[in-house]
Design a protein that fits this description.
The protein is α+β, with helices and mostly antiparallel strands. The chain folds into 2 domains: 138 residues, Creatinase/prolidase N-terminal domain (Creatine Amidinohydrolase, Chain A, domain 1, 3-Layer(aba) Sandwich), CATH 3.40.350; 247 residues, Creatinase/methionine aminopeptidase superfamily (Creatine Amidinohydrolase). The chain has 9 helices and 17 strands. The strands form 4 sheets. It has a 6-stranded mixed beta sheet with strand order 4-3-2-1-5-6. Strands 7, 8, 9, 10 and 17 form a 5-stranded mixed beta sheet that branches. A hairpin with a 2-residue loop joins strand 15 and strand 16. Helix 6 packs across helix 7 and helix 8 runs antiparallel to helix 9. The longest helix has 31 residues.
Amino acid sequence: MNLEAIQQALAAEGIDGWLFFDHHRRDPLAYHVLGLPAGLAPTRRWYYFIPATGEPGGLVHAIESGALEGLPGSFSKYSSWGSQTEGLGRLLAGRRRIAMEYSPNCAIPYVSMVDAGTLELVRATGVEVISSADLVQQFEARWTPANLEAHIEAGVKVDRVRREAFDMVRAKLTAGEAINEFAVKQFIRDRFDDAGLVTDHGPIVGVNENSSDPHYEPQAGASRQIRRGDWLLIDMWAKLDSPAGVYYDITWTGFCGPEPPAEIAGVFEIVTEARNRAIKFVQEGLRAGRVLHGFEVDDAARGVIRERGFGDYFFHRTGHSIGVEVHGSGANMDNLETHDERRLIPWTCFSVEPGVYLPRFGVRSEVNVFVGEDGAHVTGEIQDRIVLL
């Protein structure tokens, strides 16, 4: 935990302090930001308050008095519900406006970790509770140079596996041999293992109508054959198996034949135009010194698809934060599922992945965009043409 940096951020935002709370590891963000041990498993509630100025303080249960051991500041103990309420009041005395892992109307579910009852308890001390979403992004979602280096290395490897997967499908089709979605999925996972990459699940390998399900994943015994004339979508994500590893997440598409039908080619052109519009919006905005928000990036991509008459067929956000988890805790490119007002800040990364999902086929094109100190760039290869298989 970087106490000095947190206090500087609180002062800059005009916030009196940041209150962390947990019970049974409900809030993993608190453990990450504070640098608490991964094995810590509290069975009683604890509170830790970082003021904008001055010494931090905590409130812990008497039978777990060492729950926050190692953190700076002074700690009080409670045992009864009454002493907990009194201790919380003392901890927050004189404060007016504090941040917690809370999101009004659960607009940003990734940050909305504090339960309604605890909010009532905290508000009863007389403070106003605001969302810590921007603080979480600053102290949890920002990468280190080592993270960026690991991401680039993972990207090179994932892109290579992606090419090999499409080549394998092409070779099977050319030889007249059977191949199905699940076999491609297993091929990719095996190649990930060989390359020192890990992933939590996936990949998505979808043929024809299965490519219209953004979260489709083939299973053994429940998988479509891939044949000539089929449309194929592959969405794959992985990271290096190392402490600095962060995810690289892409989606590419191919047609099993010499030339895709005009309808598919037309939708592919719309989706890639939407992707490029969002990337350009970010790059030009940052170059001009503008403050950009997640919802604006979504608007840029979604506007293209709506203009071309396919707005009803793009039913997920344009992109998500990327980090140690494939869906990270930074700003999402979203003005559909949520209205994400979080800013795009340096040393964060997110996906741009617009899609159009029709009954017979779906098209998505996904890249990763890293925001640096001097602008933004796509970190890997960009699909501009349909892969012909």
